[in-house]
Amino acid sequence: MADIKRDILSLSLSEIKDFLEKNNEKTFRVAQVYEWLWKKHCKSFDEMSNISKSLRDLLDNHFFIQSVKPENLQISKDKTIKLAFRLYDNSWVEGVLIPSDDRSTACISSQVGCNLGCEFCATGKLGLKRNLSVGEIYHQVVEIMNLAKEKYNLSLTNIVLMGMGEPLLNYDNVLKAIEMICSDKGLGMSAQRITLSTVGLPRMIKRLADDNVKFGLAVSLHSANDKKRSSFMPVNEHNSLDSLKEALIYFNKKTGERITFEYLLMDGINDGIADAKELAEYCKSFPVKINLIEYNSIGNSKFKKSNSKATDAFVSFLKSRNMIVNVRRSRGQDIDAACGQLAGKKAR
Description:
Elements (H helix, E strand, L loop, with lengths): L5 E2 L5 H10 L5 H12 L13 H10 E2 L4 E7 L5 E6 L5 E8 L4 E4 L3 E4 L12 E5 L2 H19 L5 E4 L9 H12 L11 E5 L3 H9 L5 E5 L5 H7 L8 H15 L3 E7 L7 H10 L5 E7 L13 H13 L3 E5 L20
Parallel strand pairs: 1-2, 6-9, 9-10, 10-11, 11-12, 12-13, 13-14
Antiparallel strand pairs: 3-4, 4-5, 5-6, 7-8
């Protein structure tokens, strides 16, 4: 028995090959094991039915498979489904399946909790317990993909890393999981179907650019005024809008990709025409698409959803400046599955 087992999903193909070679296993076993892990996404070595019992025991003695266990499924009246995923250490994260007529989107988490403390976000009230592993991120997608097929006979068409946590603070694991989601040896999805959402960490956005990522980048902006943004997003105090702009210009030049801004409209806080003017001015430096999002209550009386008159005026102003604007209607509010509401209530 190995003294310390390792998570086999954290190993590269070459590392698995080296391990099997050192244990005198035939070369073709490498591809078989890798296929079971990523293509067939097994959760235990016993499932590897075309592999000998001795090899399964060898793997079990040295490794474990760090996946997730879906529990506490809730279905919204709009068919959105929220899942609580139990992790190996009895922590919880949440994921969401958002179906439509001919497509479905998985919203997945990257951390257990979050330490950035955005006031309008339920996850931010939890603090950070730990990062998710590669396997825990990957298996959320697998579980939601299976659920889309089982419940609605839909293929999984899109993935958004907009669940619990800040993906760029779990950089290596998130990018490895995305690599396997896109790999022909994994789920084979197109990177263009994946969007990573961040509060906007300039240094890490530049790192994404240098790594020449192919997936979409969305930034939770919510205000183009430093003082205002810092008042409800503490991260802005050390990552100013100017430094964020510089990083986004760099990202756009390196990747050629359009930036998406997520903008939560909050009554009397960031939904005035003056706010829209600041936003339009900020967006002059790079091609951008703006998703305006309805505020979803998390029990904080400071924030309220913008009224329809203010929303319409905000949209009209941005469109008058020839900007690409989408208004995102909330899904899954009745089960606390909408934007900003994921908080692992099961864990509490």
